[in-house]
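Page 42, continued from yesterday. The earlier attempt failed because a stray header line got pasted into the input along with the sequence. Redoing it now with the clean sequence only.
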Amino acid sequence: MPQFTIETTFHLPVFRHSTYLAETPDVACRFAIEDTDCSGQREDCESSGEAHVTGIWEGAGAAYRGQAIPVHAHFGEAVQRKAAQFELMLACSRSLSAMLRPADRRRRGGSARPNGRSRAAKRSSRAARDPVEPGDAKDLP
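This time it went through. Structure tokens are written below.
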């Protein structure tokens, strides 16, 4: 029976409590994010993420020696599986929408756009990816 070396990974949150003198909570948050002092940090083992497979090799103690075996998506990180599933569902939704819109517009007497989406909808979806609000952390000193 063959042996396999399996590498599993999980995310271990590390936190720190720090005090900052700042004019506003937003500025204090900016200071905390930019702070590179790691003294006083602690591991939060109770909220660690699920274990997922990040590597497979044939043989005992074979990690990073030789050809890695592809990891089936089922054993991958849940957030990555969910993101891939979301992308697939979004593509299916767009495809279905594009197929249904031209027929719907012909019944109403309008003209259909070739890709099934209006320019305004495209601008809106692009803007929704990373909105920047006035007072956003990017605007802070």
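Notes: The chain has a mean pLDDT of 81.
Reminder to self: strip header lines before submitting.
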